[in-house]
Write a structure and sequence with these properties.
Strands 2-1-3-5-4 form a five-stranded antiparallel beta sheet, covered by helices on one side. It has a domain of 94 residues: Structural Genomics Hypothetical 15.5 Kd Protein In mrcA-pckA Intergenic Region, Chain A. It is of the alpha+beta class. α3 packs across α9 and α4 crosses α5. The protein contains nine helices and five strands. It starts with 7 loop residues before the first helix and ends with a helix. It is 43% helix and 8% strand.
């Protein structure tokens, strides 16, 4: 499957905001956005006049890159959100947050969504007692995500769990640190999805043209 393999800090600089693609590094002064707060490339510091279409496109790219999706995958999520009841933009973000790789990241089992995808493909996690290695698996409220017994001594995972316990968890997930398991308590609430801040209505406008 095609995927982006270049430097992820370059993506944050291109979108002019932290997309939190490198875990704890994004919270330090080593963050590329903090050190070079302009777009990459030789024309990155030049003045650019952005059209309405350009603004909508950048917002779509920010969300797509935050969740690590390609265009075809992202459009499929949008089409599904558009068929659901409610506000399309909010439905889109909720669907993306329900992805198993995103839930693992929110629970703190991984420092980034890309790291969560890697560990999923290696078979480290069970959902409701069954092994799941598909990052796009949609978690439902009440589903229990558990780290398999053989993986509980992995230093990388334990460091990540300790880090998220310090930062705090979103209200829609619950983590049992001692048992290495977590639960999606409820569907995410749009008002609490603030890192990073998105204007999802711009995406709806872009795809509605």
């Amino acid at each position: 499957m095609a995927r982006y393999t270049g430097p992820v800090c370059r993506l944050c600089r291109r979108e002019n905001m932290k997309l939190f693609l490198k875990g704890d590094r994004c919270y330090t002064d080593k963050c590329a956005v903090e050190r070079r707060n302009y777009a990459p490339g030789q024309h990155g510091q030049g003045r650019v006049k952005v059209s309405d279409y350009g603004t909508q496109l950048r917002e779509k790219q920010r969300v797509k890159r935050t969740y690590g999706l390609l265009e075809k995958q992202f459009r499929a999520y949008f089409d599904k959100a558009d068929r659901m009841k409610g506000v399309t933009g909010e439905n889109l973000l909720v669907l993306l947050e329900r992805r198993l790789d995103s839930v693992l990241y929110r629970l703190g089992f991984a420092n980034s969504r890309s790291e969560a995808r890697m560990m999923l493909r290696q078979g480290h996690f069970h959902v409701n007692g069954r092994k799941v290695n598909i990052p796009s698996f949609l978690v439902r409220p009440g589903d229990v995500i558990e780290l398999r017994e053989k993986s509980r001594k992995m230093a990388r995972i334990n460091e990540s769990l300790d880090s998220v316990m310090r930062r705090g968890l979103p209200s829609w997930v619950e983590l049992d640190r001692e048992a290495f398991k977590g639960v999606l308590k409820t569907l995410p609430v749009r008002e609490e999805m603030t890192t990073p801040v998105f204007q999802e209505q711009l995406i709806v406008e872009l795809y509605s043209k």
